[in-house]
Amino acid sequence: MGLGDRRLARPGRLRLAAVGTLAAVGLLAAACGSDSSGSSTSSAGGATDKAKTATSAASAGGMDALVSAAKAEGKLNVITLPPDWANYGEIIQKFSAKYGIKVTSDNPDGSSADEITAVKQLRGQSRAPDVLDLGNSFALQAATEGLIAPYQVATWKDIPDSLKESGGQWFSDYGGYVSIAYDTKAVSPAPKSFADLKNPAYKGKIAINGDPTQAGAAFAAVFAAALANGGSFDNILPGVQYFADLKKSGNFLPVKGTPATIESGQTPIMIWWDYLNASAADKAKGKVDLKINIPTDGVYANYYTQAISKTAPHPAAARLWEEYLYSDEGQNLWLKGRARPVRLEAMTTAGTVDKTLLAALPEAPKDTRYPTQAQLDKAKQVVNDNWAKLVGGA
Question: Is the pLDDT at 348 greater than 70, yes or no?
């Protein structure tokens, strides 16, 4: 059982997401203050110090104590979270209103790689990222480099074992399917597969959301293309070659596709996560008529991943943010953004899922498979080694 049945259910190994478990999506939380970390964290006193090493709400003194410490800090820095990505705009607003915590969100159009760079470069500064939303392979990189603080949210048991690191260094959050969106006013015939996208009628129309060596959603597009062109989870190279050929024919645009480029008509065909294409369709309504298909020849699905920075300047707020995201309220807000939250199966069973939002999800392929982490690591290396050489900038 996979992302079909309108559920992101259990997925054999649904890990990638932004480049590796599908990412996306927000960013550096550049704090508006100076680098005096004492202003926010010192006021929280011992509670904040305790939160720095807390691996659960219980070890922070309980949820009430965690909330109090987070409120005392008063700030949270998030990174690479566009407001129209999986409904993050509303999620941030509601978290801030509920707890009275100011959320600073910087570089919203950045990548998973940018997040890791920010953690390293801003370490020790009050504007450093507190929390991360990464493709799984990037989360593994961050964990290997000692950048992550282990933490298990209260609903930890609802997250399938294959979608979390057992010690709490990273845990999957939301996911979806690679899809093909097209503007019916500018594109004909309607593309339903990667094979269709080779049509000369699509010259200068096709885009992905950036460089697949940096952005998880772009990496996912390459993996889906590989599956559609004789590749496999053990061989992503056909996907790289596919885009090289698409660029040579003139169909592929070497630009970063975004909701803005879709709305302006610059990228009338976008290969992106289904929930992001759906969000772009909503935003561009009245300007473009965007329709979405999950390609029939390259079904690829995955999740993005949450993690807490080991050097978070606001450690209590960082942990409270994760508790909020994995609560029923937070999970339903991701669902409102057309993404499939990781606790969807458990919430459906418990009756806590928003049934109207669940019914609004498009039907998805039932036979969905997922790569192992070793396959993802190998695929990432192949893309890193060959994208610039065969395709060039994107």
Answer: yes
